Amino acid sequence: MIETIDNFFRWLKSAIYVSDLIIRLVVVVIMGGLSIVGWFISIPIFAWYFYKKFGNARISGCRCYSCNKMNDCNDKFCINCGSLLTATHKQQRTYSEPKQNYSNGCQCKNCNANNDCNDKFCTNCGSKLDSVNSQTYEEMLNSVDGIIVALLAKIAKADGRISQEEADYLSSIFDTLAEKRDDRIEAKKIYKEILKQEKDKTSNIDKFCEMLSYTNAPKDLKIEIVKIFLELAYVDSVYDKNEENIIVKIVHHLDLEFSIYQNLKNQFEAKQDNKSQNSTSTNLSLDECYKVLESNKTDSMDVIKKNYRKLVKQYHYDSMASKDLPDEMLKFAEKKTKTINQAYEKIKKSRG
User: Fold this and answer.
1) How many angstroms separate the Cα of 339 from the Cα of each of 14, 83, 239, 291?
2) Where are the alpha helices (DSSP H) in 92-143?
3) Sign of torsion, CA 157 159 162 164?
4) Which among 53, 110, 156, 329 is most buried, taking Cβ atoms within 10 Å?
5) Residue 21's Cα: distance from chain center in Å?
6) Phi, psi dihedral angles at 114 (to 5 degrees)
7) Which of 280, 304, 320 is the last residue in one of the domains?
């Protein structure tokens, strides 16, 4: 080291002219400056490299000590065994493939957090997930019965809520469709999941209608499918305009004559009239029907119809739900709507 320094000074002293000495000093200053700049650049680069390689940057995998399963480090519980992911687990970080984001996530019934349907336990609260396999879900959703269930879900929710009558009818349809499947219990579970995932989606109605038309079902089967949709729409005694819009769209995509739909609709309306007449004949007298509609016997049919529409709108689920009322009041409104419909049908029949 000392010899090197001596050689350096000998090199400086060996300059014969002053200009030569100045040039050598300038070279020394430049080389020293470049060395300092090099250190300033290299230190952050090396620091960044070691931080990414060994530091605490966000890495997607945290291994569970109980079952050795990789988890997202933001999860509180293991997706495989439900064990609590403690701080000790989170220190044991390692690289893994990022967790996939499934569009059809399974919602935890305990905390409502969305989870991958392949997980066994909720990543937020650790509760066991009563979920379905995402691949099986997609396969069934794209089958004929899955498409029918998705459209049934949209029709049932079109008027604002799924009534008890509609829920019972859907359950019976699920039983019928599941009979064709090898695993009936799993099939019904998936039908329920389709109902939950699709009931509030209105943007993909056309997509499912087109998918149904691509099945190339014979005309008789198409008519039977439309009957199923109409039966659901009429099961709660009220054929809502939103329900009809969806069913008419389905009829159009199935390339059925509109007259067929009209005939089917007339048949269901006739059944509904008979049902209402039989129900009101035993439960409500004609005087009681006028009281229900807040009308008098001397009122014209136009006045009675106006009162009827006002009351239906007043007790409709959407109107009641917007007021943040308890469930008991919503159930009362549902029964009241049925009574109003029955009273109107009886008065209409009595006047020819």
Assistant:
1) 117, 53, 15, 11
2) 134-141
3) negative
4) 156
5) 80
6) -85, 135
7) 280
